[in-house]
Amino acid sequence: RPIILYLFIALVIYLLFLVIYRGTQLRAANAAFIFMVVFNFYSILEESLIRVDWFPVHFYTTIPLAFMLVYYSIWLLNKLNDSISQRFWKVALVIFMGLVLFNLVNVINVNLTTQGPSDKLLSGPSQTDPTKFPSHANNPDIYYIVFDEFSGFQPMRDYWHNSKVDEFISFLKSKNFEVIEDSHGSSIYTVQQMATRLNYQKYNLANDEFSDPEISNEWYNAISDNKVVNYLKKQGYTTITFFPFRFANFSAQTMKSDVTYSIDDVPSTALNLYFDDFWILVADKTMLKELSPIYKKLSSDPHSNFIFFTLSKVGNLEDIPSPKFVYAHLLLPHSPYLFDENGNQNLPDVYLNNAYYLGNYN
Predict the structure, then answer these.
(1) In angstroms, rounded to a whole number, what is the distance separating the alpha carbons of residues 86 and 78?
(2) % residues pLDDT > 70 (the chain)
């Protein structure tokens, strides 16, 4: 889908230059080629200007520089005679075709390589018909809800001076929750911690969460087929998981539960079918990045989709017989910091700004 829009941009630029050069196709083609080169390398130009730090870099300084570069490059090219211009176009065509073929081979290779692991994923959301499970109505439903990167209440008091946590504790206690504040994990690595907690054993640590793929895969495998879920199944529980790790790691297998909701099971909006992650990845490297607040707003990203889906679905599981074990893992208040303290969605340019963590937390 992004390719269609991309070709449309190139065609419009070519037709525009064709009008400027009064139907001279060679000059229009070369000018369009120059423009598309600058168009595609725009983010590199902007990053270079930020590194040299000669002046404040904003779109109203970088865009004029980019157009000046286009103008003078085309002006110099037009100084050449027709035979050299023709040769330039042929070289440009060879470069273009070479890049297309190079990337096409790589894309095919990546797709073939990743096809195997993705086939092993459970085909959520429902692997088993939950109505066929025997009823053990005397056992209580269990909800295990993980808020990823949720700082404890004491750090909120000591570091952030955030009194709202005490209001939240009072609310929880009014609903007969027991609040245990002095319980801490043995590491800061989410996947290692969940593998540990769901299997009653401590798993080896890597230097960091992603430095050792072999250890990381051991954690994911331990979560996928864990002792807690297997034990509860024997006790007559229907096991349900809301599993986000496909957002963070596409090789992660989903948890082997009776009913699994993963990032892939959440329906996309109509706009998200077009303004998807791949489109954003491409657009952010080009001049279009100056419009990123617009197209990132139009894009309902998988992360926020899964959060909204989980919040609405986790309390509406009456169609699944009790007792239920519900494991819901939310990458919240983990970055990207999607929300302000009133629940309104932030603009994408602050998603990774740690100053917005507290608002997202609240």
Answers:
(1) 11
(2) 81
